[in-house]
From TrEMBL:
Pfam families: PTH2 (PF01981). This is peptidyl-tRNA hydrolase. It is an enzyme of class 3 (hydrolase). One of its GO terms (molecular function) is peptidyl-tRNA hydrolase activity. GO terms for cellular component: cytosol. InterPro entries: Pep_tRNA_hydro_II_dom_sf, PTH2.
Amino acid sequence: MGVEHKQVIVLRKDLNMRKGKMVAQGAHASMRAILQLGHAAQGNFVIPLDTRIEPWLLGRFKKICVSVNSEAELLAVHDAARAAGLITALIQDAGLTEFGNVPTYTAVAVGPDREDRVDAITGGLPLL
């Protein structure tokens, strides 16, 4: 069997988001990580497949959800993923339904990429 690929969604537990809000924020992160790689071309939206994206989109599509306990921890994960050259997407909620109209960082997607590369950044974080 080949190398496994995955994406990890990191969510802030300290915000005490409603379950639906937490799911939505994780979905935003996952989608942005992939869609930010695409572009419009002749009426289509094209996402170039590379060694990080293709095995994940056309294979097992593995996602894992983990948590952090602060904005500082969330931003540190995002920064570490970027520094490692991983696909990453940081989500800032507008605060319209929760968080008292204050824009708030809620989630980060790390990957997709090879499991070992993603785990180097997120492997120590607890499952959600």
